[in-house]
Design brief:
alpha+beta, Rossmann fold, Elongation Factor Tu (Ef-tu), domain 3, seven-stranded mixed beta sheet, seven-stranded mixed β-barrel, 15 strands, elongated
């Protein structure tokens, strides 16, 4: 039994999510549909990408992930299928799918093209229902992505996930601020270990004209209340935090800001 997940910025007030589910179930009535979230901030591709990248590794092999945060719907952006290790991602080629697919390992990319399996007529403003949902359902029924699209050699990436590891420094951007005010960076423990940093080591954090000394700790209470630290969050990303505090407010960091880490 295949699993299809949905992630959108639609909210639940309108019928949009139900319409997508209806299309999927008409074509593939035996699939399990899981809602990741429909509360992504409107038009916020980066926020949607973050949640999809966090969730994707925890689903069964063969899961099909449909993401629709699509401010460019009806324009020149492509609709794509990304085959990754153990999963398939379907949605707009605007960076939404890239971090999750890269995290698992990309095997192939296809631009969705008209076929006898997809609706001949479709809404130019609701590709989620009329293109992405039926594409997911047909793949769940065993149709290979190559029958629904043509192979691509490139795709849109989000620059905020690019990490620079140089001589004695790591440069990354803030990709998310969670509900506790923790500041999530687009870098991982692997990136930090390239600098020889281990748990218990201290680093200098630089952003703008500010600098801060923090330990690389395993958990929040490794430092005193109100003290800053760097840790590995539960999604595998590096995170600047304040024990029992709000790091974003205290440090003045927001999504998109550049941060430099240097081992001490």
């Amino acid at each position: 039994m295949r699993v299809i997940t949905l992630l959108t910025d639609f909210g639940l007030k309108d019928s949009y999510v139900a319409e997508m589910k209806g299309v999927i179930l008409r074509i593939a009535p035996n699939v399990v549909i899981v809602d990741i979230t429909h509360e992504v901030s409107k038009f916020d591709v980066g926020e949607g990408a973050f949640h999809l990248a966090r969730c994707a590794p925890y689903f069964p092999a063969g899961t099909i992930h449909v993401g629709v945060v699509d401010p460019g719907v009806g324009g020149s952006r492509k609709g794509i299928i990304i085959e990754a290790e153990g999963a398939i991602f379907i949605g707009p080629d605007n960076g939404l799918l890239a971090p999750a697919a890269e995290k698992l390992g990309i095997r192939g990319i296809y631009e969705i093209k008209a076929s006898e399996l997809l609706p001949e007529r479709f809404s130019e403003v609701f590709h989620g229902r009329d293109i992405f949902a039926p594409t997911a359902a047909h793949i769940a029924n065993g149709v290979p992505p190559s029958e629904l699209g043509v192979e691509l050699q490139s795709y849109v990436r989000l620059p905020s996930y690019d990490v620079e590891v140089g001589d004695g420094h790591l440069r990354a951007r803030v990709i998310h601020i969670d509900g506790f005010g923790n500041v999530v960076l687009g870098a991982t423990d692997h990136d930090l270990r390239l600098l020889g940093v281990e748990f218990g080591d201290f680093l200098e954090v630089e952003w703008g004209d500010r600098r801060l000394r923090v330990p690389y700790a395993r958990y929040f209470s490794a430092v005193g209340e109100g003290e800053p630290l760097l840790l590995l969050d539960s999604g595998g990303y590096l995170e600047l935090a304040i024990n029992l505090g709000d790091a974003s407010k205290r440090l003045g960091l927001k999504r998109g800001d550049e941060v430099i880490l240097r081992p001490l």
